[in-house]
Design goal:
Chain lengths: 414, 247
């Protein structure tokens, strides 16, 4: 049997899933045929204060994460310690991005599968409340990002060592009001995504995410693995290797010859106990337990994270006031690393900067590239389970599995 | 009959398509005015055509030319959305580097790698262009409304500075920061200067942009010649006016 899902829909970008089954041997290739963009080549020879706006264009949906990891890597190279306010604002911006991206994935890309529709638009004929809820949550995620960083898609005001503009008290209060108004819809979201009929499939793999002692790591942390190791972000290139595969334009993340998973499920599996108290309490009401080795549970993980992001954002806005700060900085030669949790997993940056402030080297590892090998391994095993179904059903199920990873193909071919 | 619309993406970050999905307040009402026939990022059932209007995002690599031509053939009106489609986008920057793929893929021959990336109009006729990185959502909606009402959409012929002055922003250029507002076409409501950040020209050159006087001005502000050229090479380095900027 041969399956060629040409241009998987309802994912970001162009990818084909090609599966070949011969005498019970299964060969899986997730071919990324989106044009290569070669960011790591053209970010070289640019000034330290230009690269971040260029780098955010790697991906629209997670542009905020690219902005933050890029800035952190520059600051790390030039020895800049940002203020506490800058950290809080950046954290808030990242929370907004997670809310936006997860809502987009859950409601626009994924839910139509479970409700039997081809898009959120056709789904809304029967499930208008759900569709509207999803879009309202997504919109608020964008509103947070825009309030803090000037624009939701490709940020403007987040710069090296701070922000060019600080949101006003009124703007922040408006965001706070919206968060509180919409929180009940998020609880409904958690309920909905905890009760969907997910395919029964488990495969334990290595889970990797940032980790912090005292909080659920999104903006910052050390690298942690379900295999028990822990490392400083500066060491990422030694732990997560990228492999070039000839059938795809995207490199694949590989550790000790196998794939690994990064993203919402990895984070919840590793850091469940660091979620906000109210989020953990809410989860007691539902049947799904973590760690979970079912990749389809990534959707449950996303819904939990949205709730956590709402509560954390409310907390940040209620407990801080923001004022204008200086954001000047001095150019310094250096080698810098930065990472944060993007919606799809850990995003890593490494820049080298010379004494004139010019970037001489850039290395970027995106979540989707890291997940590709693991996705192929999942497809392989999952297919064995469903091989007796009709071809149509197999295709649909495999597409659902690909979507569960929420692949971001632009990211993977940066 | 409702006009059939297609939304397509080639090489880019999908940010322009995302801005359409970011029209949360009207997204679910769109089907009452248009038939969305093809939008692979958002729906699974897609037809090739016929299309009354197609919105095309992304720059084009050689292996994508055939697909683009097919869309052109199936569409009455073809609109380039975003600076990737209008000018080649950020990835056009690879055209200024010798063998850029060597840096990224260790010289391995990639199946889909082709070391050039161009705007849509390099290969097909483009009826309208909505530039920006990303497009401006409101401008997109205004454009769609005009087309649906059978009006000829008006393209802006004045620079960002006009929008910026209307909003009474403090001028960054007067404070000594280099801003490309004077040579960049309006339509974003001066988003960057509103955030106290200089315009980086993401919408591309305004009609009759005076690039040499902008370059003079930049030199007066003490910018070094290499930096000057770099400033014109951000998101729209494929625009020939911006390429002509000399130190
Ligand atoms: S123009 Fe900008 S926002 Fe639009 S696809 Fe290209 S890089 Fe993305
Ligand atoms: S800040 Fe820039 S866009 Fe605004 S008026 Fe000055 S030069 Fe023009
Ligand atoms: S101000 Fe300039 S760089 Fe900013 S969005 Fe408008 S055109 Fe683009």
């Amino acid at each position: 049997m041969n399956i060629d899902i040409h241009h998987v829909t309802r994912v970001e970008g162009h990818g084909n899933l090609v599966v070949d089954v011969k005498n019970k041997k299964i060969k899986v290739e997730f071919q990324i045929n989106e044009g290569t963009r070669l960011f790591e080549a053209f970010l070289r020879n640019r000034r330290y204060d230009e690269v971040t706006h260029l780098a955010s264009r790697i991906c629209a949906i997670c542009s905020m994460s690219h902005t933050m990891s890029s800035l952190k890597s520059i600051e790390n190279a030039m020895g800049i310690m940002v203020s506490e306010q800058t950290e809080k604002l950046r954290e808030l911006a990242i929370l907004g991005e997670h809310i936006q991206s997860h809502a987009l994935h859950m409601y626009c890309l994924s839910l139509p599968d479970y409700f039997g529709f081809d898009s959120i638009i056709s789904m809304s004929n029967k499930y208008l409340d759900e569709a509207k809820n999803g879009l309202m949550i997504k919109k608020l995620g964008n509103e947070i990002a825009e309030t803090v960083a000037g624009r939701a898609v490709h940020q403007i005001s987040a710069v090296v060592n701070g922000f060019t503009k600080i949101p006003s008290k009124e703007q922040m209060n408006k965001v706070l009001r919206h968060l509180k108004e919409l929180r009940p819809s998020v609880l409904k979201t958690v309920e909905l995504f905890s009760s969907l009929d997910y395919p029964d499939f488990e495969r334990k793999t290595e889970y990797i995410a940032l980790k912090k002692d005292d909080e659920y790591a999104l903006y910052d942390g050390n690298i942690a693995s379900s295999d028990g190791w822990n490392a400083d972000v500066r060491e990422w290139e030694g732990y997560a290797t990228e492999q070039i595969v000839e059938y795809s334009n995207a490199k694949q993340g590989i550790r000790n010859g196998h794939g690994y998973m990064t993203g919402p499920l990895a984070r919840i599996n590793l850091n469940f106990d660091r979620l906000s108290g109210s989020t953990k309490d809410t989860m007691k009401e539902y049947g799904i337990r973590f760690p979970s080795y079912n990749p389809f549970h990534s959707n449950v993980a996303r819904s939990i994270e949205v709730l956590h992001c709402f509560d954390t954002a409310i907390n940040i806005i209620e407990n801080n006031s923001f004022k204008k700060e200086k954001n000047e900085c001095r150019i310094k030669v250096g080698d810098g690393y930065g990472a944060n949790e993007a919606p799809r997993g850990t995003l890593y940056y490494h820049y080298k900067i010379d004494r004139k402030g010019i970037v001489t080297y850039a290395n970027i590892l995106t979540p989707t590239a890291q997940n590709l090998r693991n996705l192929e391994e999942d497809v392989n095993l999952f297919l064995k389970k469903i091989l007796d179904s009709s071809k149509e059903k197999i295709i649909h199920n495999l597409e659902m599995l690909v979507r569960a990873y929420d692949p971001c193909i632009s990211c993977s071919v940066h | 009959m409702k006009p059939g619309v297609g939304i397509f993406g080639f090489t880019g970050c999908a940010g322009c398509q995302l801005e359409i999905l970011n029209l949360e307040d009207i997204l679910l009402d769109l089907p009452s005015v248009v038939d969305i026939i093809n939008f692979r990022m958002a729906k699974s059932e897609n037809l090739d055509g016929p299309l009354d209007i197609s919105f095309v995002e992304g720059s084009i690599m050689k292996y994508q030319v055939g697909e683009l031509k097919k869309i052109r053939k199936n569409s009455k009106i073809l609109v380039a959305i975003g600076s990737c489609a209008c000018y080649g986008g950020v990835q056009y920057l690879q055209n200024f580097i010798e063998k850029p793929w060597k840096i990224v893929y260790n010289d391995k021959k990639m199946k889909y790698a082709s070391p050039d990336t161009k705007s849509l109009s390099s290969y097909v006729k483009v009826d309208y262009s909505l530039p920006g990185c990303p497009i401006d959502k409101e401008e997109f909606v205004d454009f769609l409304k005009s087309v649906l009402l059978g009006r000829k959409p008006k393209m802006k012929s004045y620079p960002i500075c006009v929008e910026c002055k209307l909003r009474e922003n403090d001028c960054l250029l007067e404070k000594g920061t280099i801003c490309l507002g004077p040579v960049t076409v309006a339509g974003c409501n001066s988003k960057c200067p509103n955030n106290n950040y200089a315009c980086e020209g993401c919408r591309g050159p305004v009609e009759e942009a005076n690039i040499s006087s902008q370059a003079e001005l930049m030199k007066e502000k003490g910018i070094d010649p290499v930096d000057l050229i770099r400033r014109f090479r951000m998101f729209t380095s494929g625009a020939k006016e911006f390429q002509e900027a000399k130190a």
